[in-house]
Amino acid sequence: VKHEALNLAKAKVEQWNELYGFNFANIRVKNQRTRWGSCSRRGNLNFSHKLAMLRSEEIDYVVVHELCHLAEFNHGPRFWKLVEQTIPNYMQIRKGMRFAIF
Asked: How far is CA 80 from CA 10, 26, 61, 69, 88, in A?
């Protein structure tokens, strides 16, 4: 499962980052229990090993969300505008994910 999630995360980061063009350091899959993903100030993108269990649109949202933290390391209005550029229905997706799996 972890290997599958890592391959999926790498492919999705590559796909979505063609539009954003952000610089990042590493992509990792971890046994995160409370988050779908995270982004460090060093540019490391981390994803839950359960990423592969999500629906396609949810995976896209998680990946885009973490990519956008490379430009805006917060959840302010500019951050959400970046997310909205590629995931216009991000609010609906987020609501559906609140209690999924975890």
From this structure: 22, 23, 12, 10, 10
pTM score above 0.85: yes
Could you give the CA distance from residue 70 to residue 41 in angstroms, rounded to a whole number? 8
74 in Cβ contact with 40 (< 8 Å): no
Q: Sort strands 45-48 and 27-30 into parallel, antiparallel or unpaired.
A: parallel
Neighbours of 83 (CB within 10 A): 20
Asked if 24 and 45 touch (Cβ cutoff 8 Å), the reply is yes
Q: Compute the average pLDDT of residues 22-50.
A: 94
Q: Are 48 and 9 in contact (CB under 8 A)?
A: no
